[in-house]
Design goal:
With 347 residues, the protein is of the alpha/beta class. The chain has two domains: 90 residues; 234 residues, 3-Layer(aba) Sandwich (Rossmann fold), CATH 3.40.50.300. It is built from 13 helices and ten strands. The longest helix is centred in the N-terminal third of the chain and has 41 residues. 29% of the residues are buried.
Amino acid sequence: EAVRFHAVKSTKIAASASPVVEMTIIAALCTVIILFAWKARSAPAQMTTGVFVSFLGTMALLFPPIKRMGKLNEPIQRGLAAAQSIFDFLDAPTEPQPALPPVTLSRGDIEFRDVRFSYPEQPVLERFNLHIRAGETVALIGESGSGKSTIAALLAGFYTPEAGAIYIDGHNLADVSLADRRRAIAFVSQDTVLFSTSIAANIAYADPAPDTAKVRLAAESANAAEFIGKLPHGYDEDLGPQGGRLSGGQKQRIAIARALYKDAPILILDEATSALDNHSEAKVQEAIERLRKNRTAIIIAHRLSTIRNADRIVVLEKGKIVESGSHAELLKRGGSYAKLLQQTPIT
C-alpha cells in the first residue's frame, strides 16, 4: 500500500511539472509584451519592432530546454532512490556462515520435524511435519498464504526455522553448510533468472568448466534444442538482459535444462508453468516429466496437469496439512482437495 501511495504521488508530481513550466513560460512572455509596450511608448527609438522580434525569438529558443529541465526532476529522484536501495543492499551485513564439515546429500530424503516459522506479525508454519521419501514426487497445493512457497524457501535455506528441524538424508540442515545444501537442490520458479550471456553459459551456470556435450543433452531433454537450433548463433546466442530475446516458454525450458545439467537429487518446481500458454505448457510439462525421474521432486502449482501425476498431493491450509494422498484418492474423499479444484481455476 505504501509503494502504491508513493507511486501515485510520484506520477502526480511528474504530470504537474510540465503544466507548471508552461504556465511560467506564458507568464514570462506576457511580462515581456507588457514591458515592450511600456518601453515603446516611453522610448520608441530604443525599442523598435526588430528588437522586440529578436528578443521573442531568443526566448522561443530557450523554451524547449527549459521544458526539458522541468522533466528532469522525476528521473533524477528515481535514480537517487534506486541508488540508495543498491547501496543499502551492498552495505547490509553478511549472514555469518559457521565452518561446517563437508556433507554429501545424494539421496534426497526430506523430513520436516515440528518446524515453526513466521514472517513479521504473520505466523505461517506451526509444528509442521512432513516426510518426503527419496525419489518421491510431492505436490503442495493450497490457497495463497497457506505456506507452500515458505516450505520450499526453508528447504533451500532462504530462511531459517524458528523452531524444529529440517533433515535431508538424515542430516540436520542446521549442521550442513549452505553450499552443500544448495548443491543438492535444483530450483525452477515462475520467474526465470537468465543472464546476458550465451545459452550454453546460462545452462551450465556456476560450472567453472562447462561440458558442451552435457549442455546439449540437457537442452534436448528439456525440449529446448529445437528452438536453440533455429537461433543465428545456436548455443552461443547471447540472450540479452533477463533473456529478453526468448518467450516465456523458452525461458522455462532453459531453466529446466539448467536443472538437468546440475543433476541434483532434489528438485523444487515453484509455479513453473503458471504463466504459460497451452502450447508452451505442454512442451515444458514434457520436460518436467523427464526432469523429475529418479529425483525427489516438490511441486508447487495450481494447474491440474502439473500435479495430478504426483505420487502424493499434500493440501495445506494456514500452514497445516489437512489432506494427503494421490489425485484419485483425494477426489474420492470429496474433502478440501476436491473443493479446491471446484473453487479455484485449476486447469
